[in-house]
Amino acid sequence: MNGTSGALRLRPNGRSPLIVVPVLITGPALLLVGWTQPSATASLVGFGMTIYALRNLLILYQGRLEVWPDGLVNRLAGQRAEVTWERADRLLVIRTLFGRYAQLEERGGPRVSLAAPRTSLIMHTPRFDAVLNDLSRMPGGCRSPVPVHRTVPLPAITVQGILVLSVVGAVVVAVLR
């Protein structure tokens, strides 16, 4: 998968640090609260937020997706995946409480979370669907386009919402004690 003609190169949305940086500041602040007012809940949530924000920063600054007529190369937070279109089964749009991202499902193999396109509730990527359609039509030669499947978000988003509210409630109770 090399050459220069016909390639599509994508990176994660550059505006996302506006979300990641406040979370990166809040995580250590909760850790500090957890240590000064002994609270295991605040410490664990602060640690989790810090790790999550650092992972997102890695995705922002190292994430790259190169799509070629014969396959794609994806780099995401230290992981590198190379997939040929013959092994690609479908593209999935994964909806979460905080946004959407794309995955490529391999035939009889794992899913590959793509570095781009990604969008969030606050930092919306207006061309998400257009870029996804471009990706699905990238297979060259006599290969047919890769189908796009959009997941049904309600059960996952409901569970994520309940978890977020539970964690926030636990931190508030732990800090106010």
UniProtKB/TrEMBL annotation:
TM ranges: 18-35, 154-176
Source taxon at top rank: Bacteria
Keywords: Membrane, Transmembrane, Transmembrane helix
Protein name: PH domain-containing protein
Species in which this protein is naturally found: Actinomadura namibiensis
